[in-house]
Amino acid sequence: MSAYFKIMIGIAEELAKAVTVIYFVRRLKYKYILNGLLLGAAVGAGFAAFETAGYALRGLLSGNIQTLYTKVQ
């Protein structure tokens, strides 16, 4: 995997998180700073859980239990 590809993946992931937070903040009736912080934390935690589940699935499908254990840990 090239360095350009790795950089573009990171940029796309962060942009997707920002767009999601902005979307939900704009739909709020009461706009407080804390709402943005909480939504940002929720989006980040959800993304981390989803990404970890993907790594675990990849380790599980590879058939290597040690790989699965190190990915989830």
TrEMBL record:
Pfam families in alphabetical order: PrsW-protease
Any one GO molecular-function label of the UniProt entry: peptidase activity
Alphabetic keyword roster: Hydrolase, Membrane, Protease, Transmembrane, Transmembrane helix
EC number(s) on file: 3.4.-.-
InterPro entries for the chain: PrsW
GO process terms (BP): proteolysis
Transmembrane regions listed in the UniProt entry: 32-50
PANTHER family: PROTEASE PRSW
Protein name, UniProt field: PrsW family glutamic-type intramembrane protease
UniProt source species: Bacillus salipaludis
